[in-house]
Design goal:
CATH class of the largest domain: Alpha Beta
Distance between the termini: 14 Å
Order of helices and strands: EEEHEHHHEEEHHHHHEEHEE
Structural class: alpha+beta
Bound molecules: L-homoserine
Shape: globular
CATH architecture of the largest domain: 2-Layer Sandwich
Length: 306
């Protein structure tokens, strides 16, 4: 195999109670990437459409992720990477993670799969390190593995896949303001009170249980974050109003998607998800802020070959 075209999905990280350890994969939004071998012993970003991204491989998350994979193999194989960017950088739905995950997935396939999907996560994390100054896995893991991913440990890296309740839907509203992950990480407090930690790990444990038992109500109750959300939500226009609105419309829960500015609502079933999406659209329409809205099922497969 010399070349491959892949779909690299968007993801929602944190899911409120799981800062840096929990994320899920979307199936209605994602980038397309075309990767092919070259004879130049060089990683080249040959084309980017849709958004403006660095064309130097060392400054591009896809380039950095692929280089880290090749380094592990001690390979000097060259690749050309084309990215059709559909996920806006700084949107909070794993834009850099999609590029990193799609690139390492495709290169690994072309090379005959020397690595398993779990091993690919650590290479894609190098892209996150470049993008945000921190090698978190809560976007790249679900982008590669699909479904829900839980990072039990970063050192050594151990990522678990969690079950996906069939009727779960995600509505994402992306207000078109850019919040860089690096910036929104810098405002988080570095110390957590024991009381907050107790509440947070209670919710995270309950969320895992809810996914296993398909207990949608428990899932909704678990989507609480008293550590990061109070600080970051200040940057998101109408965050509290949206929270109240989607709760009134019957969403299971609501919070910040990744580092924002996107917000997400989890819903049970298509009918409720459409109701929540329509309400968000009506509410935001007269706010003089451009926005995108996505309604998605949970993508169980992650990056896929096109
Ligand atoms: N866990 C990361 C953060 C995800 O919240 O900073 C970034 O998308």
């Amino acid at each position: 195999m010399e070349q491959l075209k892949v779909f690299a999905p968007a993801t929602v990280a944190n899911l409120s109670c799981g800062f840096d350890v929990l994320g899920c994969c979307l199936d209605s939004v994602g980038d397309e990437m075309f990767i092919k071998k070259n004879d130049l012993n060089e990683i080249r970003i040959t084309k980017v459409t849709g958004q403006s991204l660095p064309m130097e491989a060392d400054q591009n998350v896809a380039g950095v992720a692929v280089k880290s994979l090749l380094k592990e193999l001690d390979s000097n194989q060259g690749f050309d990477i084309e990215i059709s960017k559909k996920i806006k950088p700084g949107s909070g739905i794993g834009s850099s993670a999609a590029s990193s995950a799609g690139a390492v997935f495709a290169v690994n396939k072309i090379l005959g799969e020397p690595f398993n999907p779990h091993q690919l996560i650590s290479f894609a994390m190098q892209g996150e390190l470049l993008a945000s100054g921190n090698a978190h896995a809560d976007n790249v893991a679900p982008a590669i593995l699909g479904g829900f991913s839980l990072v039990r440990s970063y050192c050594p890296l151990e990522v678990l896949s969690l079950p996906v309740p069939e009727e779960l839907r995600v509505v994402v509203l992306h207000p078109m303001i850019e919040i860089k992950t690096k910036d929104s990480r810098s405002i988080i407090k570095q110390n957590v009170s024991l009381k907050s930690a107790i509440n947070q790990w209670g919710n995270l444990g309950a969320l895992v249980s809810a996914l296993y038992t398909e207990d949608y109500e428990l899932l909704g109750r678990s989507l609480q974050d008293e550590i990061v959300e109070p600080v970051r939500s200040i940057l998101i226009p109408y965050f509290q109003d949206l929270d109240e609105l989607v709760t009134e419309k019957g969403a299971l829960g609501f919070g910040i998607s990744g580092s924002g500015p996107s917000v997400y609502a989890l819903c049970k079933g298509d009918e409720n998800a459409h109701k929540v999406k329509d309400a968000m659209e009506t509410f935001y329409s007269d706010k003089n802020i451009d926005f995108d809205l996505h309604l998605s099922a949970i993508n169980k497969h992650g990056v896929k070959i096109l």
